[in-house]
Amino acid sequence: MSLIVQKYGGSSVSDAEALKRVAARIVATRNAGNDVVVAVSAMGDTTDDLIDLAHAVCENPSEREMDILLTAGERISMALLTIAIRAQGADARGLTGPAAGVVTTAHHGKARIIDVTPGRIEKALADGEIVIVAGFQGLSHESKDITTLGRGGTDTTAVALAAALHADVCEIYTDVDGVFSADPRVVPRARKLDHVFYEEMLELAASGAKVLVPRCVEYARRNNVPIHVRSSFSDKDGTWIVGESDQGEAMEEPIIAGVAHDHSQAKITVVGLPDVPGTAARLFETVAAAEISIDMIVQNVSAHDTGVTDISFTLPANDGAKAQAAIEAKRSEIGYEEVRYDDTIGKLSLIGAGMRTHSGVSAKLFGALRDAGINIEMISTSDIRISVITRADQLNAAVRAVHTAFDLDADQNEAVVYGGTGR
Fold first, then answer.
1. Helix (H), strand (E) at residue 261
2. Which of 8, 67, 192, 386 has its CA 20 to 30 A from that of 103?
3. Which of 206, 258, 266, 276 is nearest to 410 (CA)?
4. How big is the CA angle at 35 (ends 34 and 38), to the nearest 5 degrees?
């Protein structure tokens, strides 16, 4: 008997009929002789609706109370899905995140899982029950408050449960058939990938691919949990996320796994910084103190006659105002002349483990962008990724040009977004 952990996103449980369809899939998995644990998201747009309602009541609601409010969405899904499974003749038990043993940090809205104590889940499985867990939530071991895990929190919940229970696989059910070589909405002939290595998926997720979030993949890599990304709307085999040591002889390593893009980036340029030791440290310590994550950094060559330089960096656009305010508050300490903000940029990333052993990837990438008339503003690399910043209105064209240049286009359209969101 295998132990399978499944996750269902909001589009997969959007209404009563969807819940019954998912319940049938879960019961079929149990009837095939498997133990089954399920992490479920809130139905459809429930989380967004709750956020809108809270802001209608108060412009700046308490983070603690927001966490209590938002966990209601997953609890509703969990209860309804448990009811639907029982209606189909199977034994099932629903558990909130805290009841399932999910222990987190105390950071409301962006808590991290630090432990899972799955005693109640194991007992329910021993009693022959299917276990349905409300995702996206846990209990802080410090404050004893309910917390939420942020974007992609139910994916992370599912992988954490799979690791704690030593599951055979974690199946992430969404409304697309797997991981594709690019976003099918931008590249209609994007190709479904049969397998992606953890390291590649981490880069894809961090670079804008929306099927999985980075910390979910990192948790899986750290605990060697195989992930199978599938659609809850079809029976097609999806994409396996595995370690390179698990690839087997039959799995050929491609040069390029895919092209990711991100429209949510912004760029800050700090002009006229003294080119002396410690200046960059003061700048980025200021940004870090505001709890803002940055991505790409470029420092210009110092002007010999003035002894000053410029530093540009990218960050999430929704953190732009906070970053500018933090830097302005430390102007006298940092000693710059001007801060410039640009939210009309986009990031393209080319990702593949095969880059390590194949030369000419950079030349082909830059040649494809040149031929498409795309100008490059910033460049960042790792051993399996090359990222570039372009103008936002050129980003989609850049993605299509690069995808074609690396022979990633499928012979025909393979992608179907069944539920409308791609998650």
1. strand 258-262
2. 8
3. 258
4. 115
Residues 6 or more apart whose Cβ sits within 8 Å of residue 297: 311, 312, 313, 380
Residues with Cβ within 8 Å of residue 53, at least 6 apart in sequence: none
Compute and round to an integer the Cα radius of gyration of the chain. Answer: 23
Q: Give CA–CA dist 308/256, Å, rounded.
A: 40
- Residues 365 and 251: their CA atoms lie apart, in Å, by 25
Query: How far are the Cα atoms of 128, 209, 238, 411 from residue 112, in angstroms, in the given order?
Result: 30, 21, 28, 42
Q: In which band, very low, low, confident or very high, does the pLDDT at 415 lie, cut at 50, 70 and 90?
A: low
As a CATH number, domain 265-342 is: 3.30.70.260
From residue 116, give the alpha-carbon distance in Å to each of 76, 120, 155.
22, 11, 15
**Tokens of residue 183, six digits:** 């976003």
Tally of CB atoms within 10 A around 237: 12
**pLDDT tens column, 246-260:** 655 445 567 899 999
Does the pLDDT at position 13 exceed 60?
yes
Q: What is the pTM of this model?
A: 0.87
Interval 307-325: pLDDT, tens: 899 999 999 999 999 999 9
- For the stretch 152-204, pLDDT in tens is 899 999 999 999 999 999 999 988 889 999 998 899 999 999 999 999 999 99
Mean pLDDT for the chain? 92
Tokens 């605990």 found at = 223
Q: Cα(72)–Cα(75) distance, rounded to whole angstroms?
A: 5
Instruction: Supply the CATH classification number for the domain 3-249.
Output: 3.40.1160.10
Distance CA 203, CA 212 (A): 11
The Cα 133–Cα 124 span in angstroms is: 12
Domain residue limits, the chain: 3-249, 265-342
Say how many C-beta atoms besides its own lie within 10 A of residue 171's C-beta. 23
